[in-house]
Amino acid sequence: MKQTLKALAVACGATVSAFGVGAGTTPAQAQGKTITLCWAAWDPANALVELSKDFTAKSGIGMKFEFVPWTNYADRFLNELNSHGSLCDLIIGDSQWIGGAAENGQYVKLNDFFKKEGISMDDYMPATVVGYSEWPKNTPNYWALPAMGDAVGWTYRKDWFARPDVQKDFKAKYGREIGVPKTLDELKDIAQFFQGREIDGKKVYGASIYTERGSEGITMGVSNYLYDYGFKYDDPKKPYAMDGFVNSASAVKGLEAYKELYKCCTPPGASNSYMSEGLDAFKSGQVALQMNFFAFFPGLYKDPNVGGDKIGFFVNPAGPAAQSTQLGGQGISVVTYSKNQAEALQYIKWFSGGDVQKKWWALGGYSCAKSVLNDPSFPSSAPFAKEFLQSMGMVVDFWAEPSYAQLLQAEQKRVHDYVVADKGTAQEALDGLVKDWKAIFKEEGKKF
Amino acid sequence: MTSATTAHSVVEPSATTRRVAGSLVVLYAIITMIPLVWIMLTAFKSPDDAISYPPKVMFKPSLEGFCNLFTTRSRQTPEFIRSLGPPQGLCDSIARDRNMVVAGPSNYVPRFVNSLIIAFGSTLLAVALGTLSAYGFSRFRVPLKDDLLFFILSTRMMPPIAVAIPIYLMYRTIGLSDTRLGMILLYTSVNVSLAVWLLKGFIDEIPREYEEAAMIDGYTRFQAFVKVVLPQATTGIAATAIFCLIFAWNEYAFAVLLTSGNAQTAPPFIPIIIGEGGQDWPAVAAGTTLFLVPIVVFTVLLRKYLLRGITFGAVRK
Amino acid sequence: MNELSASSRITYRAVMVRPGVARRIRGLSDRTLAWLFITPTIVLLLAINIFPLLWTIYLSFTNYRANRANAPTIWLGADWYQSILTDPDIWAAMQVTAHFVIWTVVIETVLGFGLAYLIDKKFRGHGMWTTIILLPMMLSPAVVGNFWTFLYQPQIGLFNYVVAFFTGRAASSFQMLGDVTLSPWAIVIVDAWMWTPYVMLICLAGLRSIPDYIYEAAEVDRASKWRQFWSITLPMALPFIMLAVLFRGIENFKMFDMVNLLTGGGPGSTTEVASITLKRAAFESWRTGYSSAFAIILFVTVFGLANIYVKALNKVKSR
Q1: Interface pTM (ipTM) of the complex?
Q2: In what residue span(s) does the ABC transmembrane type-1 domain sit (chain B) (predicted)?
């Protein structure tokens, strides 16, 4: 009996240690030898895996990767950061997280490190430094190294545009040659033209645009229209004053235009689509136009079915008020809770090297370093390089406030309710958005 | 119902009734199985077959889904691929046909292992604690017994998200976030209510006289519990264990909110298996199939106790 | 042997066991043993259920945010409760939840009882077919729910294709998950698919609990089969049906995993059940205080409704 009990106790202890404590100490096996990098699961991440092999070869530090699809990315990693978890040593976090991560001390502040290692932010594109590194914005407080420049752009089926029947019909219908759209109206014409058309015996559709509800999709999509029509997040002279800027008459028109495009010219079932659904629609030859982040363009260009000379790229067309585009992209940061901060910093130092940045671009990542982007050969180095440079010159970002997730959720709901679920008017949606955002800022103690 | 009734008994349904009832039930069963069969078929389709329109019922089986489930791949230029040696293994050659190379193993196996450890660990604990308490409640006069039993049950009424909020904060403070131990404790606390209720029912059915006889023979109460009650309750314990296991195996809400990598189980992982574009359906289906197989086996083994398990012992057959 | 109470005999025995350490473990009095057996469970539940619950109650009166651990915590009193109970979005979520709970319970009860009634006819092979029918409810709602998004795809999904095949409409002409009128039904269909067998199983137990002699007596009285069904079968199975309704009601009120993976609450907020609202508030907006208050409201609601229902159930049972 006694033995049974003893055995039981031992077994219990062993179980607990094997399951729990053992698990807790697994990272210890890393002991400075392996670090984990967290990012989204997409083409550039695979390129980074390839690139990082050089780092391992050079430093002897192994690399592990934790990639999560975009629709879960913010949820998962903000949860991880807020739980003070040490899964990620390095994180390539979204541009809008920077405010929260900085104010809550989740990222390591990099100023001293940059100074010590001679890394200067002057060597990076200004838009990326502001967007990915600084908090508060436009102050020299750096929380990340700009790692991946990105913005929303468009792809089109060059081969379809070049078909004589398409060209003839388009001209007959719109009285002009079909070509890369210069304005959002032209874009809608093209999308409408292809919607339901038969190409090689297959019914095709106009455009794939962002409509996703759960994370940030529809906001990232609709912004490209809102900015172009004259939407502003707040009064440039009076921060956080949003009335008449978020819900201005022109912003309302922009939202309506986005809904029109969604209703007239998207493939069936596109009520919840984001980056990957856009890729699927374009790659399967369903759509003529695709809204997506530049990050995917290298992969699309390599695609055996729709890549090469079948694909073309263009920047977000102009609207009545402006020509802007939604900023994407991320900086790379060291997580405060990491047990391998020295190795993580070592990685950042390596990553900032000129040759590494060159190779990064060559492999399919978008370097933010001036040494790469200002190289005279850069615009011709890829069929989307020129467009990328142009886009990075006209980017606008969503709020990067610590309460960004809440602000984002409010917009996701208001916009999706109007565009996809047909609830209310555009004016009501944006008025509602102002109301939600005001409430959020009020809770934050912001004065406006 | 009673064995005494003959085929001509007034309460026995006629042959026609039976036939009609049988065909309706079979029809329902077939319809209900279609989604499951479709999952398994999709697991063996190539990605192109999986998303073909109209959906393909006949197709050339492929192991690509399983390969994509277990590996990560990166796209390379044909020149680069030609410069490599011969493909290593089946998955590598499948990948190379698509201009890709296998970059390494995927996270599916570690997540599956987490599922195994957390599910079995929490089951073991829940059943151990549950057996002791169930015996306590069944045999002893415990003050406030009914209140305690109800309290144990009511812990199941909280929506999991509501439970997760304070647990998240608590685990963050004591360092149990994203650990297997944390998940084991949490699942144990959820399962222990099921275990107590089920096992109390099973132990109630064991006549007290057995223990009493043993004790008259010189056993202490504890010895009687170990040597008489436990062997009698084996079936009940096994059934309870499988129910706890199924809960822990299938659980999603806690896992998705409280783990991020080290202790993440398969349910939050399978839905985020993506290919180059959207979800890689054959790989998702392959992962789903492998994940469901143990449960299908358990269901068949358990069918006798199913009712009892899913109603917390409220209904016994 | 029956004269003596078990416990007094045990005490008597306990005294007789040999002394030493062994005695301290084995010879414990019933009272001590009872507490020894029950305490670990209670401690675990206190640590992982009750303490957190109390904490949630405390947080629900504050402005605490899990992502702003350093910010000062301010006592707000019942502000959150007031703002939640007057928030139209919350009421919209409650309506979505109610729609989901009511329709799933109705459909599952009707189908489940029907199936149980048919299976109770004991045709050949009914055991095997019953087991097959039971399979969906044993599977992970998250993993299987995720796969249903594939079945619901307008172009390539099997569901749309099958519907198209039988109705003659084009498979891409409707979207179960993207359409505001269809998506609330899309989640009901999947839940009914998964959980009808559950209700069926409980109903089957109810039907089998009805003794044959009652039917035999009814036959003697020349009661029609129809009448037998209404005056014997249904009333006698009613407590079981009500039990099934109770369990399904509670489960679906808490519903998170399946709906989260199927629609994520969309399109718009048409399938945003209460748990999804709660998850967004707690783990995306990180309004911990606010979401704690909402959690408590949900808990009280389930608990209250369940208690009222159980009273009704007991009344039916005792009839």
Answers
A1: 0.89
A2: 112-302
Nearest to A83 among B124, B177, B223 (CB): B177
Cross-chain Cβ contact B223/A1 below 8 Å:
yes
Q: Which of C42, C136, C257 sits opposite B32 (nearest CB)?
A: C136
Q: Average pLDDT per run of 10 along chain A, which is 448 residues long?
A: 42 36 35 83 87 92 90 90 92 92 93 94 92 91 95 96 95 94 96 94 93 92 97 92 94 97 92 88 92 92 88 96 95 94 95 94 92 92 94 92 90 94 94 95 81
Chain B hits for A83, Cβ within 8 Å = 168, 171-172, 177-178, 258, 260
- Domain boundaries along the sequence of chain C: 6-59, 79-318
| Chain B residue numbers touching A302 (CB-CB < 8 A) | 75, 77
Touching C (3+ Cβ pairs <8 A), the chains are A, B
- Report the alpha-carbon distance of residue B178 to residue A23 in Å, rounded: 10
Domains A32-150+328-396 and A152-326+403-444 share a fold: yes
CA atoms of B22 and C282, how far apart (whole Å): 49
For residue C315, what are the contacts with CB-CB under 8 A and spacing of at least 6?
A: none
Query: What are the residue ranges spanned by the domains of chain B?
Result: 47-106, 109-310
Give CATH for domain C79-318. 1.10.3720.10
Domain assignments of chain A as residue spans, ordered by start: 32-150+328-396, 152-326+403-444
- Chain C nearest-CA distance from A273, in A, is 10
Task: State pLDDT tens for residues B106-157.
Answer: 889 999 999 999 999 999 999 999 999 999 999 888 888 888 888 787 777 8
Please name the residues in contact with C232: beta carbons below 8 A apart, sequence gap of 6 or more. C210, C214, C215, C218
For residue A423, give the nearest of C175, C268, C287 by CB distance: C268
Asked if A1's CB is within 8 angstroms of B179's CB, the reply is no
Q: Which fold has domain B109-310?
A: MetI-like fold (1.10.3720)
The class that CATH gives domain A152-326+403-444 is alpha beta
Q: Does B218 touch chain C (CB under 8 A)?
A: yes
Q: Which CATH number fits domain A32-150+328-396: 3.90.1170.20, 3.40.190.10, 3.40.50.2300, 3.40.30.10?
A: 3.40.190.10
